[in-house]
Amino acid sequence: MWHYLMGLVGLWTLLRLIRERQVVSHLQDKHVFITGCDSGFGNLLARKLDRRGMKVLAACLTEKGAEELRNNTSKRLETVILDVTKTESIVAATQWVKERVGNRGLWGLVNNAGISIPSTLNAFLKKEDFAKILDVNLLGVIEVTLNMMSLVRKAKGRVVNVSSILGRLCLFGGGYCISKYGVEAFSDSIRRELSYFGVKVAIIEPGFFQTAISSSDRHLSHNKMLWDQASSEVKEIYDEKFLSSYETRIKLLDKLSSKDLSLVTDCMEHALTSRHPRIRYSAGWDAKLFYIPVSYLPTRLADVILFWTSTKPENTL
Length: 317
Ligand SMILES: NC(=O)c1ccc[n+]([C@@H]2O[C@H](COP(=O)([O-])OP(=O)(O)OC[C@H]3O[C@@H](n4cnc5c(N)ncnc54)[C@H](OP(=O)(O)O)[C@@H]3O)[C@@H](O)[C@H]2O)c1
Hints:
- Helix 7 runs antiparallel to helix 9.
- The protein has a single domain (26-211, 259-299), classed as Rossmann fold, CATH 3.40.50.
- The model has no long low-confidence stretch (mean pLDDT 93).
- The protein has twelve helices and seven strands.
- With 317 residues, it is of the alpha/beta class.
- Strands 3-2-1-4-5-6-7 form a seven-stranded parallel sheet, with helices on both faces.
- It has helices at residues 2-20, 40-51, 63-71, 87-101, 127-155, 175-194, 216-229, 232-237, 240-256, 262-273, 285-296, 299-308; strands spanning 31-34, 55-60, 78-81, 108-111, 158-162, 200-206, 280-283.
- Helix 6 links the parallel strand 5 (158-162) and strand 6 (200-206).
- It binds NADP nicotinamide-adenine-dinucleotide phosphate.
- Residues 35-36, 38-42, 61-62, 65, 82-85, 112-115, 136, 162, 164, 206, 208-209, 211-214 line the site of NADP nicotinamide-adenine-dinucleotide phosphate (NAP).
């Protein structure tokens, strides 16, 4: 009995592997538009796809980032300045892409740009702090997609949205996790809607990686600033001792983060080039072995696990 079962699982894995290894044809003729290419995953993906011969249209937030990227890539790669929080910037970038892709349409749209500060306890934050992150990470993804949708539809192409394990499991306060939960929901809705037109939508769910967005130095100095500005009532609950153990936890998380960004960009690349892309990609061992399994647990059980692994204010326990 067990032999048959093992055989079936082995066969299923083998067939899945063979199916997923099939690559789409004429990659060199296909355009891919990526947001947030100044640094991190977006930057690495742009360079990788360029090396593979694809026509990369890389959107950077700054001219400095765009220039650096152009200096490190082939003449094929083109850059545009894009701020995903500004409608006029998105409209101009869409027109720029339209002029380049022509009748072929846009094969790949990668919604990668994102920010994570401020991410801390909700008690330290105001509505504007939430809005700032949602504006980039969620409304930015939505508005870029709405503008580029017809170009992707024309190519029967791909939309790749960068979410996070924090889009399944909320580990801290602020707008970041909320924005990623929103990206998951938006991806589900457009995947179903665009499937009628042969467009495939993939969601990337990385664990923790060492990039500018996750830099513990940036988070700690911003946290300190918020703590200094907090009301005396909040400071009484979350005292200095709590702040320092919270900081220790952030530093530890940073140390445990993976340096191998290609674990994420390999998923993005697969979603853009495989004939049979997955709907969801989890990247990093922390995501695969801890966060994703915990996200499937009953909420009460997940709460218990997260409670015991979190920092708690002393005077409440
Ligand atoms: N690193 C992780 O652990 C991790 C885990 C899960 C998911 N993610 C997600 O992965 C994506 C890429 O992040 P990353 O880790 O590669 O960090 P990153 O190096 O900071 O990349 C984010 C990029 O977005 C750009 N950006 C920021 N605001 C923008 C705006 N308003 N308009 C356009 N571009 C903007 C940044 O430009 P500047 O460099 O000029 O600021 C930067 O190039 C994000 O969506 C992030 O949420 C990261």
